[in-house]
Amino acid sequence: MQRPRYALRTYGCQMNQHDSEKLASLLHHAGYGLAPGEDEADLVLVNTCSIRDKAEHKLYSDLGVLSAWKRGGEGRAIGVGGCVAQQEGDRILKRFPAVDFVFGTHNLKLVPAMASAAFEGRRSVDVAERRSLDRFELPERHPDCPDLTPGRAWITVMEGCDMFCSFCIVPTTRGREISRPGEWIISEVEAAARRGVSEVTLLGQTVNAYGRQEARRGHAQKVGTLPFADLLARLDAIPGIERIRYTSPHPIFFDEALIEAHASLGSLCPHVHLPLQSGSDRILERMRRRYSARSYVALVQALRRARPDVAITTDLIVGFPGETEADFEATLSLVEEVGFVDHYSFKYSPRPGTAAGALDGEVGPDVAQERLERLQDAQRRLTLDYHRSRVGDKARVLVEGQSRRGNGQWAGRDPYHRVVNLVSGAKSVCPGAFVEVEIVEATPHSLIGEDACAMPEASPREGLWIEGVAKGVGSPA
Ligand code: 5AD
Ligand code: SF4
Fold first, then answer.
1. Which residues on neighbouring strands pair with residue 345, listed in sequence order?
2. Contact 306, 347 (CB under 8 A)
3. DSSP SS3 for 180
4. Among 172, 410, 412, 430, whose Cα sits 20 to 30 Å from the Cα of 78?
């Protein structure tokens, strides 16, 4: 048989996207190639998200389309993984005859074998939680799998969540907290640096809880975990790693050392995505977030003392059970007080098996929608104010690719994680390389940057070198 080909549909958070990178690498190691499109694929994997019901419903509509895809050719197989798979297990096999196998979030390694079984006509499901480090031991990334964003790499440092916030399904779908040995993480970052990566984002559901369960059980030495700030310091010392980010931290796991790291580590980016969820203490308590509005603000102040220019972004939920107008206004006023650079906000979505499902005080959809819009209006103003405050700054931008504005411009991110669209004369721009720009304009969603000096010669990376022809408005060069 000709080399089998796969296609991947991925939903949800960065953890899921990174899992898809791992799946792709595993499949390449097993002899698969990436199909140019689903029509040419033998295997389609859907990596699902269940954080809110909308994300979950996406799977069900996809499976309708994929059932038709499967009937359209011989020897085709469908695998479903991710958080909905973990949550629903064999119910997916029962409900969707076209699905061949279902794999949980701890079982990525089993996918090649499950796919082979599927091609032999055997359906299977494995959503067992694997509480051992074994699940992190994957073969080195296959050379045919480039980083999704050139120059940047995600690195898993811990998985799972033991916090059980009352609204959240993650502790069910991702299981208990487990951290990787520091040396594994360091080697992976070193390997990334060798292939030209200059920015790493450390991933974990509560990333700054890294190593806490191992330390609590007295296993830190045996497993090889270290305090999170020490891990950051070790990564900061790796040649070629110019930027380190981490996501998402929980406010209660910031210690002095982590705050201090923002002052002392040159490569630690001045951006913290710090989920708040609500500005009302009453709601925070019902959410089981374990901090108060004031302690959150105190943390932001401490981070700003360490790194005055730090950009803070957040996640917020509106319409949580029992949220009154006064609770919502407390959130709105905290958003103003902190001056978030940006935020993601969501209407509360009841999730199966979570504690919030049993709470009274349901908020109607119209009220939740109106609150969402008020929050987003306030944020638009704050984001634009922040962007305006940056005009005239010099910024170092890691080029990602073509701008989303669809005008042929290049775009990248500055150290604060803001999108910078690049206007400049015809220049060679290389995704994965840095350019120095001056911020010349602020828009609601991004910054516009113009060459501050001659664009440095981008280091050629095979297959990624692209001649940039972005035409600037009044650009100097
Ligand atoms: N409903 C709405 N938003 C949710 N989030 C998590 N669970 C829910 C839910 N049940 C949001 C939180 C979290 C982000 C990733 O998704 O704000 O930080
Ligand atoms: Fe969900 Fe709370 Fe864990 Fe974050 S800390 S993943 S919101 S349970």
1. 316
2. no
3. coil
4. 172
